[in-house]
Amino acid sequence: MRAPVKLHLASSSPGKLAEYRGLAGTFSGTVPLELVLLRNFDSLPAFEENAPTFAENAGGKALHYSRFQDGLVFADDSGLVVPALNGAPGVQSARYAGPHASNAERNAKLFREMQHRSGSEREAHFICAIALVKRGQMVAIVTDRVDGTILGSPRGTGGFGYDPVFFFPPLQKSFAELSATEKNQYSHRGKAFRRLLAFLSTVL
User: Fold this and answer.
1) Quick one: 118 exposed, middle or buried, by C-beta within 10 A (0-12, 13-18, 19+)?
2) 3-class secondary structure for the chain?
3) Is residue 77 flagged as an active site residue?
4) How far apart are CA 8 and CA 108, in angstroms?
5) Which of 42, 76, 77, 163 is catalytic?
6) Domain count, the chain
């Protein structure tokens, strides 16, 4: 039996790794996958995510950290886009209310910006870009999105970030009200990662 192909996630987040491992469990390729965190991630020189697009940030991050790890390294960048706010929070999603703001503070700022908007002005989407690199060479970049609207107040206790304020019409729930199975199926990260797995199934 062929040994698993190891993918190194450029992150120190066990929660993000667990989410990707759950998604990888649906992989139907001929080669098994093993997902691990990049060794000593927090002690490595940090990558500054200051590019104007999610794909550029994900690609730059994967290329940066592949210098410290042999084999396949993948990284992601994701966030919330509100067209009526000229694309904000966008690539600044994690820093929307300041570099050290909490999720509640970021959502509170978003509510203030949206308080006089209605109808189509409340439309929004989450985007996720994932880049895969090997020995400093880009292998693939994939992106996907999920569409919804911004609620007037938070709903649900699950998820993180902007999940409580993002309403997903097909299920009539906020992202913070979705089960883990539902979120894996419909989320921007889940959809993007399945794109990456589909690509891997053609080259492994």
Assistant:
1) exposed
2) CCCCEEEEECCCCHHHHHHHHHHHCCCCCCCCEEEEECCCHHHCCCCCCCCCCHHHHHHHHHHHHHCCCCCEEEEEEEEEECHHHCCCEHHHHHHCCCCCCCHHHHHHHHHHHHCCCCHHHHEEEEEEEEEEEECCEEEEEEEEEEEEEECCCCCCCCCCCCHHHEEEHHHCEEHHHCCHHHHHHHCHHHHHHHHHHHHHHHHC
3) yes
4) 35
5) 77
6) 1
Q: With pLDDT > 90 as the criterion, what percentage of the chain qualifies?
A: 79
Strand partners, 9: 37, 74
127-148, pLDDT tens digit by residue? 999 999 998 999 999 999 999 9
- The CATH number of the domain holding residue 86 is 3.90.950.10
The 3-class secondary structure across 147-204, one letter per residue, is EEEECCCCCCCCCCCCHHHEEEHHHCEEHHHCCHHHHHHHCHHHHHHHHHHHHHHHHC
Domain containing residue 36: 5-203
According to DSSP, the β-strands at 72-81 and 33-37 are unpaired
pLDDT band at 201 (very low <50, low <70, confident <90, very high): confident
Interval 65-121: pLDDT, tens: 999 999 999 999 999 999 999 999 999 999 999 988 999 999 999 999 999 999 999
Give the whole-angstrom CA distance, residue 22 versus residue 10: 17
